[in-house]
Predict the structure of chorismate mutase.
Amino acid sequence: MTSSSIQHLWPNTTEPGDQTAEQRALAALRQEIDQLDDEILALFQLRLAIADRVGKAKDAPQGPHVKLRPDREQAVMARMMKQADPANAEAVEALWREIVGWGLARQGRIGVRVWAPVEPTRAFDAARLRFGAAADLRAERDPRAALAFAAEGHGVAVLAINAGDPWWRGLRDEWSTLSVFEGFGPSSTPTALAVGLIDPAALPKGRRVVVNVGGDAGDGSGARRWGLDTHHGWTLTLVEGALTPGGPEGCVGAIG
């Protein structure tokens, strides 16, 4: 192939005079994207630096709780989603989960142990979306190993429900220091729950998670209830009501 033929197929577009109007318009758009990328990078690195400062402020004695503020994350996400174009909602949520996750990682990467004997890939995907790529996600074969990991303050556990193991009963006795702070799956009937040593004051606003003896028909308060699992007279339930974690009602946490 001759040199002139090659130039015909791949013309030299480095000189503005050789470009078509369409090519010049595309080059201008790409330059605009490059400028935005520079601004985004600068702002992201500034956010990480501020997250470092927040992490140092959190180093003041606050008990054994992990450095997670589900209430703060919930508020940030709600504010972002309110401003986002509905067409971009999914992308904005995923992006902000990553931003928040990498900010938390500046305070120490969070470990996440996942127990999901049924559809483990779906559980992993949900956990990855929630905690971001910065989190150290690993599978556990035994839900009690995941609970022990969380109870020792190393990170959090994501555990399937209705999977043949009533691990959630332990949230009323041997794992009573742990709190549920997130649900995964359908909003009305989540298929997995996240638990950790969460400061009760930092739990998200939303339905309370209750573990108690008896049915899930309610206690006469009129609060709406959703039964999630049962075992030998014990029930795992979502309740709309201002219940106190660790109180006599059997509240073990909350999900947004």
Remarks:
- The two ends are 65 Å apart (CA to CA).
